[in-house]
Structures are given as structure tokens and as C-alpha cells.
Amino acid sequence: MSFLQGENITLRALEPDDAVAVWRMECDSDQWLLNGISAPYSLQNIMAYIAGYDADPYRAGQIRLMAVTNGDEEPVGMIDLYEMSAVNHTAYTGVYVSPEYRRRGFAVEMLQLIENYGKAVLKLRSLAARVSSANIASLNLFEGAGYRLCGTLKDWLLTPDGQNDMSVMQKILL
Question: Which of 12, 91, 117, 144 could make an S-S bridge to 84, C-beta 3.0–4.6 Å?
């Protein structure tokens, strides 16, 4: 098994054929307020992003991988490493699982795979995640995966329901 292949899913680079799946995931407005997005991406934006893919995560400062089921390669979600620091060997991570695939353990497996890849290949020392206090499922995901709360940004997010805190979760990989 490779660093990017788990028991149920494989993480792979985005392909041109993924554009519609990525567009659907990026346009899930239920996630916008939790992720700081204020407008949808166009399909053209997504196609340009995929076409301009830089295979050097440190040069690009990020890497986005598609999670597909082993066997039939059905896209179930995406995972990112972003704000990568070549100096500090740190990055933030973000996970998205399509609604129809949630609660099946895919997010946990995606995190484990990206952590293994980050540690073994990218030599990352630490990963962090920014999680809205309103996103209980994500808070539970990261806590269950060994991330610990290391800070809270009070009233960081402004939502239609009021202000939410932003939790910063961290996992030391070494």
C-alpha cells in the first residue's frame, strides 16, 4: 500500500475529468460559512485550477487531492494541505466529504493518508486545522484523529446566526 492508498480510498491528484465533482463540492453552500467562502466558484475557475496544477506542493504552497473509492474510483471528497511552509515544515489541512458519503469513516482515512504522506514525503512536522465552533462534526473528526485545541479566535466568523469562534486544532507528526 502506498502513502496515498488506504483500505477504502485512494488520494490522487485532480484530473480534468474531476472538474464537475470539484465544482459541486466547492459550491456546497452549507460549507461556505464554515470555511470562509462568500461566493461560488465557476466551473471555468475549477478547470483553470486543475489545468494549472503545480506538482511541487512547496512551490505552490498547497496541494489538493481527490479522494476516490478503491476499485470504482468514485469521488467521495477532497483534502488539502495549504499555507505550507518549507521553512517550518508545517501546513494547514482541510477535509471535505460529499454529503452522500459522510459518516462512513472516509474523512478519518483521508486525514490518516494525508498525515502519512505529509510526514514521509513532505517532511511535515505539524499539521493544523481551522474549524468553526459551529462545525461539531469537524471538531469531533479532528479531535478523534489526535488533533488538540491549541487556540480559539473569539467571534472570528460572522454568520446569519451570529458570531462564531474559530478553533485552531494541531497535531504534531513527529
Answer: 91
Do 24 and 78 touch, CB atoms closer than 8 A? no
Kindly report the backbone phi and psi dihedral angles of residue 116, in degrees, each rounded to the nearest multiple of 5, phi listed first. -60, -45
Asked whether the beta carbons of 76 and 83 are under 8 A apart, the reply is no
pTM comes to 0.91
Predicted confidence (pLDDT) per residue in 142-156, tens digit = 999 999 999 999 999
Backbone φ and ψ for 66, nearest 5 degrees, come out as: -85, 135
Q: Which of 66, 71, 68 is nearest to 14 (CA)?
A: 66
Distance CA 15, CA 102 (A): 23
Q: What is the pLDDT of residue 36?
A: 59
Place of cell 512547496: 58
Strands 90-97 and 126-132: parallel
